[in-house]
Structure formats: structure tokens, C-alpha cells
């Protein structure tokens, strides 16, 4: 399995929902690889969500993976209620310590690019990982929902209301 790391837009909510741009089209990663539009269309869902491409460290599931004009957009959930490591990674994403995404795949068709790297036109997508530093500077978490934040906000509102009541 090949792994291409790149810093992407990813975001996590308090409920563990993660969205991100897993691969941006139109620019090469740090080793010169380009993946062409259409290459991800055969992705089979759900896809494993791993941390750092560690096959022994599944932390969630990607329920959506679709191409748009910017690249491969992904959406899924960290299993924060069931997997301790997912809770840890969620905290790292929320803090900004983990902000990259990386795709793990098998190349089916590619050509070598002048100056290094490849242009990949067909692949089998196996997984998408959350990573500290990605190979592609454009791949990142865009949102991360947080129930913990919502609960903390509700508690703060309740405390303020209690103080106002006297």
C-alpha cells in the first residue's frame, strides 16, 4: 500500500464528526506526485479512518468520500464513545496538533513526471488517515464537531443564569 501524506483542511466536531479535503487536485505533493480527477471515483465506502496509516490503530470510519472541483472531500466519525485512541486523536485535532490527512492506496495506473514524481490516473483507495504532517500541503481537516464544547457552553449558560437569579 502506498501512502501519500499532505497537510489538508480537516475539522472535528465535539460529536467526533470529521470533514476534510483528503487530496487537493491541481498541485503536486512534496515528492512530486499528482493524482488526477476521477481517480477516486471507485472508492468503496465505508473507508477505515486510521491514525498515521497504522493498520492496528483504527479510530473511526469515513462515511463519505466524493470528488469535487477542489479534490477528494471526506466526511466521517471518530469513534470517541467506543475507542480511547479516537478520543485522544479528537483532542489533538481540536487543539490543532493534528491537522493533516493522508490517503493510503494501491496505484493502478500512473506515468512518471519529468523532474520526479508521478501522475496517477487510477488507484484503489484503501484508507484515509489523520496525520500530524501531511505530504500534500493542501490536504487538511476542515471541521470537527464537539459535543464536549456544547455541553461546556450549556453549563456556563446555566451557571450564569443561576447567578442572575441570585
TrEMBL record:
Residues 10-149 form the Prohead serine protease domain. It comes from the Bacteria. Keywords: Hydrolase, Protease, Viral release from host cell. One of its GO terms (molecular function) is peptidase activity. GO terms for biological process: proteolysis. This is HK97 family phage prohead protease.
